[in-house]
Amino acid sequence: MDHFVYRDGQLYAEDVPVAEIAAAVGTPFYVYSSATLVRHYRLFDEALSWGPHLVCYAMKAASNQAILRTLAAEGAGMDVVSGGEYARARAAGVPGERIVFSGVGKTRAEVRAALEGGIRQFNVESEPEMRVISEVASAMGVVAPITIRVNPDVDARTHAKIATGKSENKFGIPIARAREVYAEAAALPGLKVVGIDVHIGSQLTQLEPFEQAYLKVADLTEVLRADGHEITRLDLGGGLGIPYTRSNEAPPLPSDYGALIQRTLGHLGCEVEIEPGRLIIGNAGLLVSEVIYLKHGEGRDFLILDAAMNDLIRPAMYDAHHEIVPVKEAEAAAELHPHDIVGPVCETGDTFAKGRLMPPLDSGDLVAFRSAGAYGAVMASEYNSRPLVPEVLVKGDQFAVIRARPSFDDMINRDTIPEWL
Ligand code: LLP
C-alpha cells in the first residue's frame, strides 16, 4: 500500500498534487511519501514484536538524510555497507549501537571509523576481513562485536544479479565451514562473537528460500552453542520483495515473514535483526518525468521522456518493470496504445519499457514511475552530463526539497584543472 492516489482528477503524493511539486522543482524528480515509509517500517517492527528485535533499514536502497531521520525517529537501526553510509547514518543522528556494518570489502579505515564512532556489530564476510577487524580493534584497545555471514547455498529465486545466497556468490563463508571459522574468531584478540548473519538476496517473492536459509541458521546456532560460542543475535538480512506490477501476485507480507522467523528461529531466544531496504522505501517513492516528444517511428510510437537511464537504471540493468502512469487521471482512463518509453540518453539501452500500453500523451504531460523509491536516486549518475535529479519528501500537505538539483556550474566546478593546462 502507498500514499500515491488519484484525487480530483490528478495524482497526489499524500495531500500534495504531484503536478504542484513538478511546477515548483521542475522535472524529473523523485518524490517520497513519509507516511508510506513509516507505515512499512512499522509493519516490520510489529511483525517481530513477539521478541527482542531491531529493524536495521538497508540504507543502500535510499540514503537521503531526511529519509534516514524519518526512520531514525521511529527507532530504526541502519544496515550500512561503506564508510560513506556509516557517516550518513551517524549524521542523521543514528547512534552507533543501532548500526550494523555489512559488505564484503570493509577497509581498515572503515573498520576504524566504525569502532571510533560506535557500532552494534560487523557482519564479517571472510576470514581475511575477520583478521583485519581483529587487528584494527586490538590496536585501538577495543573489542569489536561480530557476527559471521554464512552462505547457506539457497536459491533465492530472484534475478541473478541480486541473488547472494548461492555457493557461487561472493558473499559470506560457506555454511559447511562455519564451525572452523567461528573457532578462529573465538581465538582472535579484539573480537567478540555475538551471533550469525545471513542474507540470501533481494526482491524475493516467496517465503520458501527464507525458510530454507533460516532452518539452516537454526541448526547452526545449536551447533555453535554446543561448541561453546555465545550466539545471542541473529541478523537475517533483507530481501522481502514488493509488487512492481499491478497484475503479478503480491509477495508475502511482513507479518507472514515475521511469523516465519518466529516459527523457524523463535525458540532459540536470540535477539533478531532484519535488514529490509526495498520494502520500506520502494513503494514510498515515485520518479516524476515530463514527456518531451511523442515520436512516430517505423511501426512504433516512442514516448521520449526527460528522465533517462542515468536517473533510474533498474530497467536497463535488471530488465526491471516499473509501472508508468500519467499524472492526469483523465489520461489514465483513456484508450491505450503500445509505446516504447525511452529517455534522451544516447544508448538504445536507455529504454524504460517496450510496447507498454499507454494512453495518448504528448509534450508537456507528466508521468510517474511507481515503485521507484528503492535503488532509484542512489543508483543515479550524471551520465551525459545530466545533473542528478532532486529528491522531494512529502508529509501530509507539506513538501520539501531534500536534495536540490545541482546547476551545470555545480557539476562543472567539481572538476579541477591541472596546473599545466
Ligand atoms: N542486507 C544486505 C546484506 C544486502 O546486500 C541487501 C541488498 C539488503 C540487506 C537489502 O535488501 P532489500 O530488502 O532491499 O531487498 N540494486 C538492486 C538491489 C540490490 C540489493 C543489494 N543488497 C535493485 O535495484 O534491484
Describe the protein's topology:
Blueprint: E1 4-7, E2 10-13, E3 16-17, H1 18-25, E4 29-33, H2 34-47, E5 53-58, H3 65-73, E6 77-80, H4 83-91, E7 99-101, H5 108-117, E8 121-124, H6 127-140, E9 144-151, E10 173-174, H7 178-187, E11 191-197, H8 208-226, E12 233-235, H9 254-265, E13 271-274, H10 278-281, E14 285-296, E15 301-305, H11 314-318, E16 324-326, H12 329-333, E17 337-342, E18 351-358, E19 366-369, E20 391-395, E21 398-403, H13 408-412
Parallel strand pairs: 4-20, 5-6, 5-13, 6-7, 7-8, 8-9, 9-10, 9-11, 11-12, 12-13, 15-17
Antiparallel strand pairs: 1-2, 2-3, 4-14, 14-15, 14-19, 16-19, 17-18, 20-21
Helix pairs in contact: 2-9, 5-6, 8-9
The chain binds ligand LLP.
Ligand LLP is lined by residues 58, 61, 79, 102, 162, 199, 202-203, 237-239, 275-279, 314, 318, 374-375.
Cofactor: pyridoxal 5'-phosphate
InterPro entries: Ala_racemase/Decarboxylase_C (IPR009006), DAP_deCOOHase_LysA (IPR002986), De-COase2_C (IPR022643), De-COase2_CS (IPR022657), De-COase2_N (IPR022644), Orn/DAP/Arg_de-COase (IPR000183), PLP-binding_barrel (IPR029066)
Binding site for pyridoxal 5'-phosphate: 239, 275-278, 375
